Amino acid sequence: MKYKDIIKDIKSKNFKKLYLFYGKETYLLDNVIKVFKESLNHSLLDFNYSILDGREITMDLLLSNVETLPFMDDRRIIIVKEFELLKNKRKNFTEEDENNLIDYLKNTPQQSTLVFIVYGDIDKRRKLVKELIKQGIVINCDRLDSTELFKWTKNRFEKENVDIGRQEIMYFLNIEDYQNKTSNKTLSDLENQIIKIASFTGKGNTVTKEVIDKLSSKKIENDIFKLIDAIGNKNSSLSMKILNDMILEGESPLMILSMIGRQFRIIIQSKQLQKVGYSSNVIAQKINVHPYVVTKALNQGKNFNNEVIVKLLNEVLDADFSIKNGLIKDTLALEIIISKFCV
Fold first, then answer.
1. CA distance 24 to 86
2. Which of 112, 138, 231, 313 has the fewest C-beta atoms lying within 10 Å of its C-beta?
3. Residue 16, phi then psi, degrees to nearest 5
4. What DSSP string runs through 23-91?
5. What angle, 0 to 180 degrees and rounded to 10, lies between the N-to-C axes of helices 253-275 and 330-341?
6. By three-state DSSP, how is residue 118 classified?
């Protein structure tokens, strides 16, 4: 079965007893949890819905949750996130526990639905994984293919009450580069861009290529490149202008801070890997970014020694903490960092 068919079944309350969802697309995994939760009577969630940390759970706690009868409903749902025995780890479970669990899963209570969620890969060699494949529904939540991605994007724009044509959708997806193997973009990233574009466009209006260009994440990335170039060249006035322009265009200062931190992490990683002999393409594969980003990072790295980069990254962390705890205004925090490193 496909992901969309499973979601449809859950929404229709057509439950199976066992599920395993895994993969790198966190948006899809989080949506599974949301749909399961919404399938139950909201007023009875405290009794009929449990979400457990699979890295800390014990055998007794797991079984007691599955064995607990639903209250004033015909279904109880138990979500177990990051269960260690699905990832070739063994902290709280012995091999005997694993074998007992496998036997138990062959005959779980009819009124209980047990759902395993793994953010990343599973170990398909494990006996438990093989049993789940045999007894339940196992779905790999990886990147959407081109057809699924187009449909998802179209539906997501429609949900924001804006019109968008086929050509504009294709243009948006091409710019966002979600399907590039070296891209670390997720559906959550695309959703954030869609919300931003829809908000700028206005309900009932039509999304244009010009708006997509104006608000694209590639433009933001290029603006960050320009900002870091200006800081590296000790050009305080240009740095401040780029920062203010980004804020005027609606970018969140906290997001700008995060992007600055990300780029400097890429710079120091790229420099270190180049030092031991790796090419730009190999570095790109190792740190999961586009080769162009590595090339840009290595060029920018010529303006910053490692000591300065570490100091700047610490400043970014401190600023992030201070902003989130209301100790300083976000724009001021960015201006202080720029001023410090432009001297």
1. 15
2. 313
3. -100, 170
4. ES-HHHHHHHHHHHHHTS-GGGHHHHEEEEETTT--HHHHHHHHHSPPSSSS-EEEEEES-GGGTT--S
5. 40
6. strand
pLDDT digits (tens, 9 = 90+) for 127-144: 999 999 999 999 999 989
**Which residues of 154-305 form beta strands (DSSP E)?**
none
Quick one: tokens of 341? 């490193």
The architecture in CATH of the region 3-140 reads 3-Layer(aba) Sandwich (3.40)
Q: Which fold has domain 217-341?
A: Zinc Finger, Delta Prime; domain 3 (1.20.272)
Count, in order, helices (H) and strands (E) of the chain: 17, 5
Q: How do strand 49-53 and strand 18-23 relate by DSSP bridges?
A: unpaired
- The ranges of the chain annotated as CATH 1.20.272.10 are 217-341
The pair of three-digit structure tokens given for residue 302, joined into one six-digit string: 């010529």
Of the pLDDT bands very low, low, confident and very high (cuts 50, 70, 90), residue 222 is confident
pLDDT in tens, 28-69: 999 999 999 999 999 999 999 999 999 889 899 999 999 999
What value does the mean pLDDT take over residues 314-333? Answer: 94
CB 289 within 8 A of CB 182: yes
In percent, the amount of the chain with pLDDT more than 70 equals 99
Residues forming CATH 1.10.8 domain(s) in the chain? 146-215
* Nearest one of 273, 267, 277, 269 to 299, comparing CA atoms: 267
What is the crossing angle of helices 187-201 and 166-176, to 10°?
130
- Does the pLDDT at position 299 exceed 70? yes
**Unique residue bearing structure tokens 């196992």:** 138
What is the spatial distance between Cα 329 and Cα 334, in angstroms, rounded to a whole number? 9
Give burial (CB, 10 Å; 0-12/13-18/19+) of 166: exposed
- All CATH 3.40.50.300 domain ranges of the chain, comma separated, are 3-140
Determine the CATH number of domain 146-215: 1.10.8
